[in-house]
């Protein structure tokens, strides 16, 4: 909880004062709703999601016959938590056998770092973890993954730069089976200059995983950089078409005052945020918790 709070300080610093000004108004009227809308949109909650939140708030105020703006605070928290929780947010792990997790995302969003952090997280839980270096395209990507592997004490299955990513992942699966691995984390390329090629590559990797391991990938996580705001939404749409995302990792939440993007993503993409990145260190990745998140933002 403390980690959540300090990691989300920038967003909370910009929200707390603004929200207090709403809740300390003299009455609940149109001006109040407008001010609230402006705050939410300013925090990157997105126009549609903001409208939905405010509409729900209005309906509840009417139904409960609320008069005092102070009473809106717990109500708003409730609505935000409901939106973020919709559909759950836990990881789908295979309880008796290999879990394959496919990680996708554009270069620079924090994909490699996230894989390192996830590897660390599952190792701490006592699981056996293996990495597969499926970004064979970007110079240095394989080495960078190996550095993370060393750092957290996890092996990396790799081929040469330029080789077929699907073949690397295939080998990763065979190695995982042979070594009794619990969790295989698969890195992928993130070049968006050639979108069509990349999406074909990801589909192929996805197919190979599905063919080799029943019900896999158990998770396909898209890594998004929270500081890129509505750009992140665009990326999500592109990747979702190719790979059928099961969850989002929202990185660099420590570096933005606009953490409201988590709500926009949840609502507009219908994909749950499962993890948030709150810094560059190994343990700066937290499972997403709706209550803690909302609490950290403006309580
Ligand atoms: P990739 O190209 O997607 O693999 O991105 P990297 O994993 O190399 O990360 C790019 C930069 O973002 C690095 O400097 C990371 O340390 C940094 N980074 C990744 N995640 C976070 C995070 O949650 N918070 C902060 N502040 N920096 C992060």
TrEMBL record:
Involved in targeting and insertion of nascent membrane proteins into the cytoplasmic membrane. Acts as a receptor for the complex formed by the signal recognition particle (SRP) and the ribosome-nascent chain (RNC). Part of the signal recognition particle protein translocation system, which is composed of SRP and FtsY. It is a peripheral membrane protein. Belongs to the GTP-binding SRP family. FtsY subfamily. Pfam families: SRP54, SRP54_N. GTP binds at residues 105-112, 187-191, 251-254. Its main location: membrane. GO terms for biological process: SRP-dependent cotranslational protein targeting to membrane. PANTHER family: SIGNAL RECOGNITION PARTICLE RECEPTOR SUBUNIT ALPHA. It is found in: Cell membrane; Cytoplasm. This is Signal recognition particle receptor FtsY. It catalyses: GTP + H2O = GDP + phosphate + H(+). Residues 97-277 form the AAA+ ATPase domain. One of its GO terms (molecular function) is signal recognition particle binding. The gene is ftsY. GO terms for cellular component: cytoplasm; plasma membrane.
